[in-house]
Amino acid sequence: MESVITFETARQLDRPCFIDVRSPREFETGHIYQAINLPVMDNLTHEAVGTLYKKVSPQAAKARAIRYMSDQLPLYFNRVQRLMADYQLVFYCKSGGFRSSSIFGLLTGLGEPVYQLKGGYKAYRNYSNNTLSTIASQFDFVCLNGLTGTGKTEILHQLKQRGQQVLDLEAIACHRGSHFGHVGLPAQPSQKNYEAHLLHILQSFDQKLVFLEGESASIGKVHTPLPLLEAYQSSPHQVFIESSLSLRIHRIQSEYLKPDQPHQIEDLIQTLESMDKMNPDRRQQAINKLKEGDSASVIEDLMVHYYDPHYHITKKQFELSLDNSDSTRAAQELIRFYS
C-alpha cells in the first residue's frame, strides 16, 4: 500500500488513528473525528512562523519551525511510539504540506510504518462535504416528533439499547434544541466538528433504517447539513409522540434540575433573562418562582404558554402516533411497526 493515502483509503486500515499535527487552535476549530492532536508547533510558534512567511520569506519561516520542532522531537517521538503500539498512524496537517510531510518523512526514514493523509485536512473537508451531500439518500429515516418533554430522546436510547440504528442529533450537538438546551451540558462542538461526528456515525451504519428526532435546521449554534435535514424531514416515516402534561413536567425537571448540578438553576434564570420575546411580567414571575424552588409551575407555564403554541402539528402528517408513558414499551412498538 502507498504511504500517502486518501481519507477513504485510511478508513479501510485495520486500526487507523489520525494524528493532527496542526496547532491546538486549528485543531479546536475543526478536526477529523477522534483524531489526536500532536502539534509540531504550539499556537504562538505557529503564529510567529506564519508572520515570518508573509513578511520575511518562506525560508525564514521554515528555519524557525525547524528550530522549534527539533527541540520537541524526543518527547514527540516517545508519544508517537506509544501510539504505534496499538494503532496505524495517519498524519495530517492543513493541506498535506510542510508540517505533516516533515514528521512523516522523519518517521518513514527511521523505518516506522506510518501514513500521511493526502491533501491534509483540506482534502478531508472536501470529502466530508461531498459525502454528507449524498449519504443521507442511502437510509430510510424514522423521524420522532412531539412536544417538549414527551420523551423522544428516551425512546431513542431504548431503541439503541435494542440494537437499532439511532442518529441522536442532540447528543452530537451537545444541545437539546431549545432556549434551555445548553443547560447542564458541555460546550457545543464547532460546526466542522459537528459535521465530522455526523459523518463518522452515518458511515458506521450498515442498514437502511435509522431512527432520529425531528430536529429543526439549527441545534443551538450548529446547523445540520441541508441534504440530511431534507432527507429526514421529507421521510414518509413520521411518528408523533404523545405524553401527559404531568409526565412531561417530570421529565423536564429530571433533565434540567439534577441534584448534583445546583448551578443549573442559575443557568435557567440567565436563559430566561435573555428571552426577549417572552412577556416581561411572565418572565419575571418565572424567575421569582425558580428562586423560590417552584420549578414545576415554571415548567408547566413555559410549556403551555410558550413552547406548545409554537409547535404547529397536524396529525394527518404522521404515519404513527404513540403514547410515551413508558419509553421501553414505545420503543418496542416502534420496532414491531417498522420490522
UniProtKB/TrEMBL annotation:
Matching InterPro entries: AAA_SelU, P-loop_NTPase, Rhodanese-like_dom, Rhodanese-like_dom_sf, SelU
Entry's Gene Ontology BP terms: tRNA wobble uridine modification
Domain Rhodanese residue range list: 12-133
SUPFAM superfamilies: P-loop containing nucleoside triphosphate hydrolases, Rhodanese/Cell cycle control phosphatase
Domain of life according to the entry: Bacteria
Keywords from the named record: Selenium
Keyword Cytoplasm listed: no
GO molecular function: tRNA 2-selenouridine synthase activity
Keyword Secreted appears in the UniProt entry: no
PANTHER family reported in the protein's UniProt record: TRNA 2-SELENOURIDINE SYNTHASE
NCBIfam families: PRK11784.1-2, tRNA_sel_U_synt
Protein name stated in the entry: tRNA 2-selenouridine synthase
Biological source species: Facklamia languida CCUG 37842
